[in-house]
Design brief:
The chain is mostly beta strands. The chain contains one helix and twelve strands, in the order αββββββββββββ. It has two domains: 5-64, no CATH class; 72-157, RNA polymerase II/Efflux pump adaptor protein, barrel-sandwich hybrid domain (OB fold (Dihydrolipoamide Acetyltransferase, E2P)), CATH 2.40.50.100. The strands form three sheets. The chain has a four-stranded antiparallel β-sheet, with helices on one face. A four-stranded antiparallel β-sheet has the order 5-12-10-7, with no helix packed on it. The protein has a four-stranded antiparallel β-sheet with strand order 9-8-6-11, with no helix packed on it.
Amino acid sequence: MTIDFKELGELLAAIAKNNITELTLKNADFELTVSQGSGSSGGSISTTITDINAQLISLPTPESQPMMVDRHSTPAIDKQWVEIKSPMVGTFYRSPAPDEAAFASIGDRIKIGQTVCIIEAMKLMNEIEAESAGQVMEVLVENGQPIEFGQPLMYINPG
Protein backbone atom coordinates (compact mmCIF):
# COMPACT_ATOMS: atom_id res chain seq x y z
CA MET A 1 0.00 0.00 0.00
CA THR A 2 1.34 3.43 -0.93
CA ILE A 3 0.00 6.63 0.57
CA ASP A 4 1.38 10.06 -0.30
CA PHE A 5 1.28 11.66 3.16
CA LYS A 6 1.91 15.13 1.75
CA GLU A 7 -1.24 14.82 -0.36
CA LEU A 8 -3.11 13.33 2.62
CA GLY A 9 -2.10 16.32 4.75
CA GLU A 10 -3.27 18.72 2.03
CA LEU A 11 -6.57 16.83 1.84
CA LEU A 12 -7.05 17.08 5.63
CA ALA A 13 -6.27 20.80 5.56
CA ALA A 14 -8.80 21.37 2.74
CA ILE A 15 -11.47 19.41 4.61
CA ALA A 16 -10.79 21.39 7.80
CA LYS A 17 -11.31 24.68 5.94
CA ASN A 18 -14.55 23.65 4.19
CA ASN A 19 -17.95 22.43 5.23
CA ILE A 20 -17.29 18.79 4.34
CA THR A 21 -18.62 16.60 7.15
CA GLU A 22 -17.52 13.18 5.90
CA LEU A 23 -15.43 11.76 3.07
CA THR A 24 -14.55 8.15 2.28
CA LEU A 25 -11.96 7.09 -0.30
CA LYS A 26 -11.64 3.40 -1.08
CA ASN A 27 -9.50 1.22 -3.33
CA ALA A 28 -8.27 -2.38 -3.31
CA ASP A 29 -5.47 -1.65 -0.82
CA PHE A 30 -7.03 0.73 1.70
CA GLU A 31 -10.02 2.72 2.85
CA LEU A 32 -9.67 6.28 4.12
CA THR A 33 -12.52 7.84 6.09
CA VAL A 34 -12.39 11.47 7.21
CA SER A 35 -15.20 12.92 9.31
CA GLN A 36 -15.43 16.42 10.67
CA GLY A 37 -17.53 17.15 13.74
CA SER A 38 -19.09 20.50 14.46
CA GLY A 39 -18.66 22.53 17.59
CA SER A 40 -18.12 26.03 18.91
CA SER A 41 -14.45 26.05 17.96
CA GLY A 42 -15.00 24.91 14.38
CA GLY A 43 -15.03 21.19 15.10
CA SER A 44 -12.45 18.48 14.94
CA ILE A 45 -11.36 16.05 12.28
CA SER A 46 -11.25 12.32 12.84
CA THR A 47 -9.31 10.28 10.31
CA THR A 48 -8.80 6.55 10.01
CA ILE A 49 -7.00 4.52 7.41
CA THR A 50 -7.72 0.82 7.11
CA ASP A 51 -5.11 -1.11 5.19
CA ILE A 52 -5.56 -4.53 3.60
CA ASN A 53 -4.62 -6.14 6.93
CA ALA A 54 -7.50 -4.30 8.65
CA GLN A 55 -5.21 -2.27 10.91
CA LEU A 56 -6.63 1.08 12.00
CA ILE A 57 -4.39 4.11 12.28
CA SER A 58 -5.67 7.37 13.80
CA LEU A 59 -4.20 10.45 12.15
CA PRO A 60 -4.81 13.69 14.08
CA THR A 61 -4.54 16.86 12.04
CA PRO A 62 -1.77 19.35 12.81
CA GLU A 63 -4.31 21.82 14.23
CA SER A 64 -5.72 19.27 16.68
CA GLN A 65 -2.48 18.34 18.44
CA PRO A 66 0.23 20.55 19.97
CA MET A 67 3.71 20.03 18.59
CA MET A 68 6.05 18.18 20.92
CA VAL A 69 8.97 20.58 20.67
CA ASP A 70 10.67 22.16 23.68
CA ARG A 71 11.51 25.61 22.33
CA HIS A 72 13.13 26.58 25.66
CA SER A 73 16.14 24.37 24.89
CA THR A 74 16.40 25.40 21.23
CA PRO A 75 18.94 28.10 20.41
CA ALA A 76 17.84 31.22 18.56
CA ILE A 77 16.70 30.16 15.13
CA ASP A 78 18.34 32.02 12.26
CA LYS A 79 15.79 33.20 9.68
CA GLN A 80 17.82 31.66 6.83
CA TRP A 81 17.67 28.17 8.35
CA VAL A 82 15.44 25.70 6.55
CA GLU A 83 13.04 23.48 8.49
CA ILE A 84 12.75 19.83 7.65
CA LYS A 85 9.14 19.00 8.53
CA SER A 86 7.48 15.65 8.95
CA PRO A 87 5.43 14.72 5.88
CA MET A 88 3.38 12.26 7.95
CA VAL A 89 2.29 11.07 11.35
CA GLY A 90 4.51 8.33 12.75
CA THR A 91 7.53 7.53 14.88
CA PHE A 92 10.84 9.36 14.32
CA TYR A 93 14.10 7.41 14.06
CA ARG A 94 17.52 9.01 13.62
CA SER A 95 19.28 5.85 12.38
CA PRO A 96 18.46 2.76 10.29
CA ALA A 97 18.89 0.49 13.36
CA PRO A 98 19.39 1.07 17.11
CA ASP A 99 23.08 0.12 16.98
CA GLU A 100 23.91 2.18 13.87
CA ALA A 101 25.01 5.80 13.49
CA ALA A 102 22.46 8.57 12.97
CA PHE A 103 21.68 9.59 9.39
CA ALA A 104 22.34 13.25 10.31
CA SER A 105 23.64 14.83 13.51
CA ILE A 106 24.18 18.42 14.59
CA GLY A 107 27.13 19.84 12.65
CA ASP A 108 26.91 17.35 9.76
CA ARG A 109 26.90 18.67 6.19
CA ILE A 110 24.10 17.15 4.13
CA LYS A 111 23.23 17.10 0.43
CA ILE A 112 19.91 17.41 -1.36
CA GLY A 113 18.29 13.98 -1.45
CA GLN A 114 20.32 12.62 1.46
CA THR A 115 18.34 10.60 3.99
CA VAL A 116 18.20 12.51 7.28
CA CYS A 117 15.85 10.25 9.28
CA ILE A 118 13.21 7.53 9.07
CA ILE A 119 9.56 7.87 9.99
CA GLU A 120 7.74 4.65 10.72
CA ALA A 121 4.09 4.85 9.71
CA MET A 122 1.72 1.90 9.40
CA LYS A 123 4.65 -0.50 9.89
CA LEU A 124 6.42 1.00 6.87
CA MET A 125 9.83 2.67 7.21
CA ASN A 126 9.80 5.92 5.22
CA GLU A 127 13.16 7.56 4.53
CA ILE A 128 12.95 11.35 4.79
CA GLU A 129 15.33 13.13 2.43
CA ALA A 130 16.75 16.63 2.68
CA GLU A 131 15.23 19.09 0.24
CA SER A 132 18.14 21.49 0.64
CA ALA A 133 21.85 21.13 1.21
CA GLY A 134 23.61 22.62 4.22
CA GLN A 135 24.67 21.99 7.80
CA VAL A 136 22.41 20.40 10.43
CA MET A 137 21.98 23.06 13.11
CA GLU A 138 19.35 21.52 15.38
CA VAL A 139 17.52 18.20 15.76
CA LEU A 140 14.19 18.93 17.42
CA VAL A 141 12.85 15.46 18.25
CA GLU A 142 14.15 12.45 20.15
CA ASN A 143 14.77 9.04 18.66
CA GLY A 144 11.62 6.91 18.95
CA GLN A 145 9.37 9.93 19.59
CA PRO A 146 5.88 10.01 18.05
CA ILE A 147 5.53 12.92 15.64
CA GLU A 148 2.73 14.76 13.88
CA PHE A 149 2.22 15.79 10.27
CA GLY A 150 4.04 19.07 9.61
CA GLN A 151 6.04 18.94 12.85
CA PRO A 152 9.54 20.43 12.49
CA LEU A 153 12.18 17.70 12.79
CA MET A 154 15.41 19.63 12.30
CA TYR A 155 16.89 22.89 11.05
CA ILE A 156 19.42 23.13 8.22
CA ASN A 157 21.68 26.12 7.59
CA PRO A 158 21.85 26.27 3.78
CA GLY A 159 24.84 28.64 3.87
